[in-house]
Fold:
Amino acid sequence: MTRVELIGFALVASTIAGCATVASRETADLGVIVERATGSVQLVNQTKRASLGRIQGLGDLSHASIVYSHDARYAYVFGRDGGLSKIDIVAQRTVARTVQAGNSIGGAISRDGHLVAVANYQPGGIKVFDADTLELLSEVPSTYGVEGKRAKVVGIADAPGNRFVFSLFDADEIWVADLTDARHPAVRKFRDVGRQPYDALITPDGRYYIAGLFGEDGLVLLDMQNLDAGARRILDGYGRGSEKLPVYKMPHLRGWAMAGDYAFLPAIGRYEVLVVDRRTWKQVAAVPVQGQPVFVMARPDGRQVWVNFAFPRNGVVQVIDVPTLKLVESLHPGKTVLHMEFTARGDEIWISARDDDRVVVYNTERFQKLAELPAKSPSGIFFTWRAQKIGL
Amino acid sequence: MRARITNILATFAASLAVVAPVCAKADPSAERQRELVNLVRQDCGSCHGMTFRGGLGPPLTSEALREKPADTLTATILNGRPGTPMPPWRQFVSEAEAGWIVDRLQKGFLDDAR
Structure:
């Protein structure tokens, strides 16, 4: 036998051995709920609206997020304290874990599924890991300016071509790291893109990377198919004339909302959802809502956009009807709504109410409550359909 | 009816005015303390980290804050820091409560009060 065959044989043998202890299980309707205060996650079944178990010991999970392996068997959990954990959602256990930085904000998985990248605040930069073993493959420190300081990295997204694109909050820059050679990233930098990019999204087709600015009213757009065009400002001065309020929680752009011809985005410091024409990237409307939006998410069919809100108006979720751009519903799922997740086809939505220690499931047509699941300080909810999506 | 409500409000305001200076020095009530701890851990935690080791905002551990003047930190909480994401909290906490929060943070009482 050649060497490769031997390894192959060993793999098959160990898989068979593994199967003896692990019942096979479908993963396409599973999900993971982050319990931010207890460093645990719950595994859930979407169809049964039931909890399957809990995995503990994952560190500080405030602001934790998750990406899935392409086969939707493993969840990578990015903790606030720099912890990166790989969870087997079938066997319900942590299979690999590393504390790779002092402070991080999220991560992404490469298009080929072999690389997991983490965005770090402290020390600033990204680190790239082997998705199988979590072995560190390379690092891109976010060093900027003449003093050689390292910026906080935000808004990391995967882009076609095994690239990761991310923003440097303190440096006003966007970087694109090409990991075709995973041990030697090739980085392209875009400087002076606008003041304090705080989060970003990539469109579902992987084409446009859009970063929101905290220090200015506007966003920045980078065409991933034409980097030579540079970073372009869009929606410049969107709130002009209306007073900007203090921001008690940063909006999240990653819960992008593309619906029909429009993109819906949270206005920072305003009680508004911005509606943008996807072809021209010009604002076409602003929908008034009851607070400062945090997540603005489109139902998969694009008919509705669901919005949750920043402190202190965070006990409400509002629903925008896309064709009329009117609010059609206000729901009260509980105290401090942190996140929402649609089922793959959007018939149901799961909403976490942190301070009521529960997750509430609604039907999205009639808005009736279908179930309530107990959870400890729940925040992010991540369903396995994300495994097949660019930018999630 | 309207006059009555105004009246009640006036009485309420007056009683507040009398009560406020007395309370200024005292610690917040036990219930209010619980609310404040939750606010600090969760809502300040969204930028400073739930264990206060930092995030978009700097660490608020006792190690980080001990040597800094309490009144500056109290003013930061009440007024925020313009030009940075640190928002003013004056609407939600009184001066005395902000002072109490700073005192607790500096002593590290909140650090591992999970």
Summary: The first strand of chain A starts at residue 30 and ends at 35. Chain A is about 5% helix and 50% strand. The radius of gyration of chain A is 21 Å.
